[in-house]
UniProtKB/TrEMBL annotation:
It comes from Streptomyces bluensis. PANTHER family: ENOYL-COA HYDRATASE, POLYKETIDE BIOSYNTHESIS ENOYL-COA HYDRATASE PKSH-RELATED. InterPro entries: ClpP/crotonase-like_dom_sf, Enoyl-CoA_hydra/iso, Enoyl-CoA_hydra_C, Enoyl-CoA_Hydratase/Isomerase. It comes from the Bacteria. Belongs to the enoyl-CoA hydratase/isomerase family. This is Enoyl-CoA hydratase family protein.
Length: 245
């Protein structure tokens, strides 16, 4: 089986690259497990000052893999691992992000995307809701904008994603944006980074502690519903679902 996550290390920065372009880096059970394991190893490696999460192909992540979906508990665990990691996690996005992939962005401490990237919460189109990915997103993004994009499934561009707090910054060259950020992280002490990150993620972790069990149950219920089965079938068959007007 092709390796789904590649690791590269350079001067204290570990880059984890999602490499499943055949399904647009969809969050399969296998990919979620592999990425979780890679993050766990990073957390145990005292030489890692920060983690950069990036991708191959033109899509950062297309959301849940409908043919091999992860259990909601596994996706919650992955996002929590990003939030709890003592080293900062940065998202480097040069492609499109959909549905569950937006949960990864919300969990990251810093998220940078190229101006060609696009974003969409497409869950409502297949009969489900952005249940578990709301855990890191609700504390960090503009509530009015989040309501609009989650309810309509509209596509929006990188500048709008930055305006509503989904992204830290956007520009034509993401590496130019990241260069001073990574330099600053290399200059920071490991203790300073860990303690500062803990301060900044406290509200997000409160949401996980309070709501994760209920939202996991909601996600499981919705994905097993008749409307979700119709929505996912329609998506895979490239047709409109029965409720589309």
């Amino acid at each position: 089986m092709t390796e789904l996550v590649h690791r590269a290390d350079h001067r204290g920065i570990t880059t984890l690259t999602l490499d499943s372009p055949a399904n647009r880096n969809a969050l399969s059970a296998t990919l979620v497990g592999t990425l979780s394991d890679a993050l766990t190893r990073c957390g145990k490696d005292h030489g890692v000052r920060a983690v950069v999460l990036t991708h191959t192909g033109n899509t950062f992540s297309a959301g849940a893999d409908l043919r091999d979906p992860p259990h909601p508990d596994a996706l919650v665990g992955l996002m929590r691992r990003i939030v709890e990691l003592r080293t900062p996690v940065l998202a480097r996005v040069t492609g499109h992000v959909r549905a569950g992939g937006l949960g990864l962005l919300g969990a990251c401490d810093i998220a940078v995307a190229s101006t060609t990237a696009t974003f969409a919460f497409t869950e409502v189109h297949i009969g489900v809701a952005p249940a578990v990915i709301s855990l890191p997103l609700l504390p960090r993004t503009d509530p009015r904008a989040l309501a609009r994009y989650c309810l309509t499934g509209e596509r929006f561009e990188a500048p709008e994603a930055a305006r509503i707090g989904l992204l830290t910054a956007t520009g034509d060259d993401v590496d130019d944006i990241l260069a001073p950020v990574l330099d600053g992280l290399r200059r920071a002490s490991p203790q300073g980074l860990a303690e500062t990150k803990q301060l900044l993620t406290a509200r997000v972790l409160e949401a996980f502690d309070r709501d994760a069990a209920d939202l996991t149950a909601l996600s499981a219920r919705l994905f097993s519903s008749p409307q979700a089965r119709e929505g996912m079938t329609a998506f895979l068959e490239r047709r409109d679902p029965t409720w589309a007007e």
